[in-house]
UniProtKB/TrEMBL annotation:
It comes from the Bacteria. PANTHER family: GTP CYCLOHYDROLASE 1 TYPE 2 HOMOLOG (PTHR13799:SF14), NGG1 INTERACTING FACTOR 3 (PTHR13799). SUPFAM superfamilies: NIF3 (NGG1p interacting factor 3)-like. It comes from Dermacoccus abyssi. Belongs to the GTP cyclohydrolase I type 2/NIF3 family. Pfam families: DUF34_NIF3. Transmembrane segments: none annotated. This is GTP cyclohydrolase 1 type 2 homolog. InterPro entries: DUF34/NIF3, DUF34/NIF3_sf. Homohexamer.
Length: 283
């Protein structure tokens, strides 16, 4: 059993190797956000969002480092006073002596990364990149082991995702047969064309907007339909955390240090409950 500890600088080096900051999209803000590179790191918590509830979990749980998918400081910040949510988050991290590291679009394009975890949850084989963005492969597309109905596919995917009130929103005939699936964790309604070009029967992503979804259905009117599955932004990216945390633990262990890792179960999906407006539910 290893007895030594590692430093934040060492952990950052490993994470940067897994998810090189240079592969992040030009608008993104990734890497180390708070923390002293020389501080020792023994316990690490992984989460999708650096939300206040998650930061409280890290502080109260005695974690030294919080690794999140979404960055805390994406746009220009002129103040970190506690009068704002960002300010309260930064203050809680600094006062609680918890470092923060973000791997966002660089984790999306990594192999293995966010989209690989979603592809595994969908049960895909022969997986390949869906599209290239700023010189990096984004999303994945692959085939199911055997065709199944859209409803059966969505039910199986739902069983792999963390529970969220809204669940899956699906556009398509529930009894239609699907065999080829495109995935893109997080917001992905800008890649309908790529999913079609890849021959996908169904496209699993999140944050599908009203007008692009309608336009997609209308484009399908004279062609092969592309069924849409909105799996939720938080849920579709949460799947990556388990593998990322285990990978970090193993890499630190290979360098002769002990590292305890955990995945936050706090739901940071912003929606709390769902009220159906369908006629069948109201009768």
């Amino acid at each position: 059993m290893n007895n030594s500890t590692t430093t934040l600088a060492q952990v950052t080096r490993i994470l940067d190797g897994f998810y090189p900051p240079s592969t992040a999209q030009s608008w993104d803000a990734v890497g180390l956000v708070t923390g002293d590179p020389a501080q020792p790191i023994e316990r690490v918590l992984f989460a999708v969002d650096p939300a206040l509830d998650v930061i409280d979990e890290a502080v109260n749980g005695g974690y030294d480092l919080l690794v999140t998918h979404h960055p805390l400081l994406m746009r220009g910040v002129k103040s970190v006073a506690t009068t704002s949510g960002k300010g309260r988050a930064v203050t809680a991290l600094v006062v609680g002596d918890v470092a923060l590291y973000a791997a966002h679009t660089n984790a999306d394009v990594a192999t293995p990364g966010v989209n690989d975890a979603l592809a595994v949850a969908c049960g895909l084989r022969g997986v390949e990149p869906l599209v290239e963005t700023e010189g990096q492969p984004l999303g994945r597309v692959g085939d199911l082991e055997s065709p199944m109905t859209l409803r059966a596919f969505c039910e199986r995917l739902a069983s792999k995702l963390p529970p969220a009130p809204v669940g899956l929103r699906v556009s398509g005939d529930p009894d239609a047969e699907v065999a080829r699936v495109a995935v893109l964790g997080g917001a992905g309604d800008g890649e309908f064309g790529a999913a079609r070009a890849a021959g996908a029967d169904v496209y699993v992503t999140a944050d599908l907007r009203h007008h692009p979804a309608i336009e997609s259905r209308e484009e399908d009117a004279a062609d092969k339909p592309l069924f849409l599955v909105d799996a939720g932004h938080w849920a579709s990216e949460w799947l990556w955390l388990e593998h990322a945390s285990e990978r970090l633990r193993d890499a630190v262990g290979a360098e002769g240090a002990d590292l305890e890792v955990a995945v936050s179960r706090r739901r940071t999906d912003p929606w709390d409950f769902l009220v159906s407006t369908s006629e069948g539910e109201q009768q």
